[in-house]
Each structure stands twice: as C-alpha cells, then as structure tokens.
C-alpha cells in the first residue's frame, strides 16, 4: 500500500504536515439549503412534517415513543448485556468526579458573592440508526447528563436496535423517540406535539445531522461539530510494532477520512511498524476502509527526537494521543493539546472508546487547542450570585458610578449613587 513516510528533516516538511492534517468539513450548499427547509418545515408544521420526512428518509410509518421504564433489555446476549453494565459503572464512576458544586464567600462588609451551579432541565441525545448505531456512544453521551442531574434525557434514533435500547435503559434515558435526520434535530430544538424542546443536543450523526446542529445552535446548545476520528502515536521504539499498527488501524477503520499518524525518532522501528501494517492489514475485515484511510490521511513520521514529536503533536492537537515511550511522564508534561491521552503500551485507545471511564466524545480537527471532552460540566450551567450589603453599596457604588459616567451611561451611574446615598448614615 502507498503509506506516506515523512521526516522532519525533509525540505518542505512543514507544508506537507499542514496539508496532511488539514480538515475542513465541506459545507455543501445543497445540504445547507435542504436542512434549512426541513428545519423551517418542522417549526411550522410540527409532527406532521417530522412524520413526512421520517416516512421519506427512514421508511418508518409512525413516530414511536418509548418511555424509559418501558425500554427493553431482552434480546441482547447475556455477555453483551454484562459488558454494557460494567462499562456503564466505570463511565459513571469517572464522571461523578466531574460534578461541580455551588460556592460563595462573604466579604468583611457583609457583601456575599458566589456561583450557583444547576443542571440543564432537558437534554437531547441523537443516536444514528441501523448499522451506524453504537451503544457505547449512548453511554458516553447519556451518563454525564444523568450524573449532572438533567431532569429529562430524550433520545432520538431512527429504528434503534436492541443493543442501543439496552444501553439507553441502563444509562437511564427517560424517553426514546423513533425519528432521525435533520428533522429530529429540528424537533428537539423547537419542540413538536410528540417531541419536547430541549436545552442542549448531543450525539453524532451524518452530514445532515451535523448541519442541522450547526443551524439550530443558539436556539439550543450543542456538544460540537465533530470531524473524522484521529489517533496520533508517539513512540520511541520500545513498544510492539504490531500493537502500534493495530492501534493505528483502530481509528482508520472508522471511515476513509479518519487519520492515523505515528511520530517516532527511530527509523528502524518505523520500518517495523510499516511491515506490521502490511502483514496485519490482510486479516482485517474492514481492510479496504483502513487502506483508504491510511493512504489518504495516514503517515509514519520520523522526528529528530521525542521533544520534536511533542511539538508536532501540540501543533496537530489530535483527538487521541498514545504515548508509548520508556519515560512517559516526561513526554506527558510536554503535551498541551489533545482530546484524550493514553499512557503506556497497555493503554490501547480502544479501551477508552468503550469502558476505561473517560468520555470518548472528543474534540477533533485541531479543536483540542481550545475545547475539551464531553463531560458532566457540559450539562451544568453557572449563575453568578451577588448580594450587596448596605456598606458594600457605598463602597461599590463609588467605583460603579465613576465607570458608568466614563461610559456615558447616566442611568447606571444614578442607580449606583441612589444606593450610595441610601447607605450613608
């Protein structure tokens, strides 16, 4: 296969790297227009529009609603059900540590200041249907919402399979509605007769779902507009070449646009990894997707040293970073931009996808420079708390009135002075 080999010593490496990692989700004008029409139609006609699109796109003849207490777990093999329950417990235990608490403090003059943390009232979870359904994503999106204290979690999915419904039941989803596509996003954002309006929409979907989330953002919150999956492995040659190759495969098999990159200062080891890729690829059921992904966006990159590997990793800001080196803490200290970091050769990224505990909904396409994994904090909001004492009104009024006058806002200044005058004895 035509697997890209690069070296940081090569002339033009910076430009080659930029071209390799650049990913701009094409905003197809036709997709945008279609989604815009669907959203407007759902806003205008509610369930009637949702049902029309559901029949057209998903070949479902009704908007079926299941309450959480009625979600089935039968039909799922016992081994899979046990794995779902164990994964749920681990994910829940991790996310419980993310809970934020309200706090306040009182100044000497009696003025009280603080922050009040409250959960969102209602959240919507989008889950793709059919072959694209991933019960692990149900857990990763639902668990932090429930831990945060969201009162109602509404899941939409066109024809969810038994494993997805079991995951929803285990995670405590309150309602499952059998709709999908842009029409489901619109229904969650604006509400219909059958679909309650939510405060935030999370979960993956196709290009129409992603565009719909983009267009309703502002009316509701969203988690992110995610790009293709990414993995970057930093290795010093001390790990198993087969393990490295398989971990690169684990992301490349998602789709042809996924990205898998190795950064290593050991040229000989890079060759071993390439040999492993060639040998192991033949065994992979999704070998055609893996090959297409590696040839289009994959690379084996020789660096001068591990410090340079860290610099490049920070520049890329990937979704997943695996650190397979003898002194992993030294490398960890240098990493600043990553969605999730896996330390040591035993820490396969695949474990993070399913059951390690941290969330697998992660920033992609370089957005780890400024954003974070999905978590409990995404389902909590903060309100400032201000209780000014009589003495505080005098002290703060002086500051506020001066600044308000400077901004030409006379009513602000007057409101502050009235309290100053009332507070003077």
Mean pLDDT figure: 95
Kindly name the structural category. Answer: alpha/beta
Name given to the CATH architecture of the largest domain: 3-Layer(aba) Sandwich
| Strand fraction | 15-25%
Largest sheet: 6 strands, parallel
What CATH calls the topology of the largest domain is Rossmann fold
Strand order of the largest sheet: 1-12-11-10-13-14
Uncertain stretches:
none
Number of domains: 3
Annotated CATH homologous superfamily of the largest domain = Nitrogenase molybdenum iron protein domain
Main CATH class of the largest domain: Alpha Beta
SS summary, helix count:
16
What is the strand tally? 15
Distance N terminus to C terminus? 85 Å
Measured on Cα atoms, how large is the radius of gyration? 26 Å
| Helix share, percent | 40-55%
Overall geometry: globular
């Amino acid at each position: 296969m035509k697997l890209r080999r690069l070296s940081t010593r090569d002339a033009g490496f910076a430009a080659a790297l930029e071209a390799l990692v650049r990913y701009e989700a094409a905003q197809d004008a036709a997709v945008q227009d279609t989604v815009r029409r669907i959203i407007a139609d759902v806003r205008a006609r509610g369930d009637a529009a949702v049902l029309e699109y559901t029949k057209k796109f998903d070949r479902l003849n009704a908007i079926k609603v299941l309450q959480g207490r009625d979600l089935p777990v039968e039909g799922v093999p016992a081994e899979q059900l046990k794995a779902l329950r164990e994964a749920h417990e681990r994910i829940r235990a991790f996310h419980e540590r993310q809970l934020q608490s309200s706090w306040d403090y009182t100044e000497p003059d009696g003025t009280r200041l603080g922050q009040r943390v409250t959960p969102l009232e209602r959240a919507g979870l989008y889950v793709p249907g059919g072959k694209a359904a991933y019960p692990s994503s149900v857990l990763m999106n639902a668990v932090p919402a429930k831990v945060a204290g969201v009162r109602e979690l509404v899941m939409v999915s066109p024809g969810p399979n038994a494993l997805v419904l079991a995951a929803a039941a285990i995670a405590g989803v309150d309602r499952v509605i059998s709709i999908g596509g842009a029409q489901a996003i619109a229904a969650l954002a604006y509400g219909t007769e059958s679909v309650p309006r939510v405060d935030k929409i999370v979960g993956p979907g196709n290009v129409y779902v992603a565009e719909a989330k983009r267009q309703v953002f502002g009316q509701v919150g969203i988690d992110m507009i995610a790009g293709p999956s990414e993995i970057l492995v930093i290795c010093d040659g001390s790990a198993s070449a087969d393990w490295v190759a398989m971990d690169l495969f684990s992301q490349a098999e998602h789709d042809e646009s996924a990205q898998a990159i190795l950064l290593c200062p050991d040229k000989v080891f890079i060759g071993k990894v390439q040999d492993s890729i060639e040998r192991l690829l033949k065994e992979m059921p999704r070998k055609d997707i893996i090959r297409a992904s590696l040839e289009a966006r994959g690379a084996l990159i020789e660096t001068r040293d591990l410090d340079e590997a860290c610099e490049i990793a920070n520049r890329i800001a990937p979704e997943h970073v695996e650190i397979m080196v003898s002194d992993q803490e030294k490398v960890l200290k240098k990493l600043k931009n990553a969605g999730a970091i896996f330390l040591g050769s035993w820490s396969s990224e695949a474990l993070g996808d399913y059951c390690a505990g941290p969330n697998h909904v992660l920033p992609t396409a370089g957005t780890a420079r400024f954003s974070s994994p999905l978590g409990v904090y995404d389902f909590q909001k903060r309100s400032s708390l201000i209780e000014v004492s009589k003495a505080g009104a005098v002290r703060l009024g002086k500051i506020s009135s001066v600044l308000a006058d400077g901004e030409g806002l006379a009513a602000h200044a007057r409101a502050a002075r009235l309290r100053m005058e009332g507070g003077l004895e």
